[in-house]
Specification:
The chain has helices spanning 8-74, 78-105, 109-137, 141-149, 151-229, 244-294. By secondary structure, the chain is mainly α. The radius of gyration is 51 Å and the shape is rod-shaped.
């Protein structure tokens, strides 16, 4: 079907459908960008930041255990050493819980490698911790202090360095996710601006097409009707569509044809009347002439 044959109602529906499609497209693009931003934000809030907090608490717990070890070694009071020993049992439990909770959040190869190193360093530290506490409990303070300030310190420093690397890795992950969120937001702004410009262009083009497709044939009909009203029946009316304006032109064409026939009939009748009048006048003249001759 040609565009010029479309009814005005169909054209209006087509324009509305086009504009609605553009609007739906803009909304879909916006939703996709929002989903990407939401994903990046969730990655920060559900993964990276909780991991940073967990590992930060883990580092504090390990440092607290190290302090308790020093206090146990430096004390000689049986009750004090027992109190520190019980506190260290709770500290070890806290460290192990924090480490296991963090392990559940590991989801990248680099983080898995660091998590494995952290587990190995922690097991090594646990073994030295138990050895140190046993020697201190047996009041072997000098060997215990030597271990505390020697191999145990080196293991603690290595464990702390691994924990710091894990914290740094998670902070970098959070920073990358934040940059991704900002990139998605910037991309969404650009896409929305472009989509808005396209939508405005489509709306303007659709409005121009709709207005011209309706007003141009109506203007033609008005011009023809005005010429007929002025008595000009010589205009050629061409019907090139079957929509509302085409139907109006067809009706105007039929009206012009009927008017031409009416004018022709009137003219024919006038000519007949004129001929009859002329014949009557001639008859009267002939009769008058014969009357004079007889007189």
């Amino acid at each position: 079907m040609e565009f010029r044959n479309l009814k005005i109602s169909t054209r209006l529906v087509a324009v509305m459908a086009l504009l609605s499609s553009v609007l739906v497209g803009i909304v879909l693009v916006a939703l996709l960008q929002m989903q990407a931003m939401r994903k990046s934000t969730q990655e920060i809030t559900d993964n990276w930041l909780p991991s940073v907090m967990l590992v930060g608490n883990l580092k504090a717990a390990i440092s607290n255990l190290r302090t308790l070890e020093s206090q146990h070694v430096l004390n000689t009071d049986e009750a004090a050493m027992e109190r520190f020993a019980q506190t260290m049992v709770g500290a070890v439990t806290v460290i192990e819980t924090l480490r296991q909770d963090y392990t559940k959040r590991v989801n990248t190869p680099d983080e898995q490698a660091l998590s494995a190193t952290l587990e190995a360093d922690w097991k090594k530290y646990q073994a030295q911790h138990q050895e140190l506490v046993d020697m201190s409990t047996r009041r072997e303070k000098f060997p215990a202090r030597k271990l505390l300030e020697g191999d145990a310190k080196l293991t603690f420093d290595g464990l702390s360095a691994t924990v710091d690397k894990v914290i740094t890795l998670n902070q970098q992950g959070a920073g990358t996710a934040a940059l991704n969120t900002e990139a998605h937001a910037s991309q969404a702004r650009i896409i929305m601006l472009i989509a808005t410009a396209v939508a405005l262009g489509v709306a303007a083009a659709a409005a121009v097409w709709l207005i011209r497709s309706i007003t141009t044939p109506i203007r033609t009909v008005v011009t023809l009707a005005d010429q007929i009203a002025q008595g000009d029946l010589s205009q050629s009316i061409t019907v090139d569509s079957n929509n509302e304006t085409g139907q109006l032109l067809a009706a105007l064409q039929r009206m012009q044809t009927q008017l031409v026939q009416v004018v022709a009939n009137v003219r024919s009748g006038s000519e007949s009347v004129a001929t009859a009048s002329a014949e009557i006048a001639q008859g009267n003249h002939d009769l008058s002439a014969r009357t004079e001759q007889q007189a």
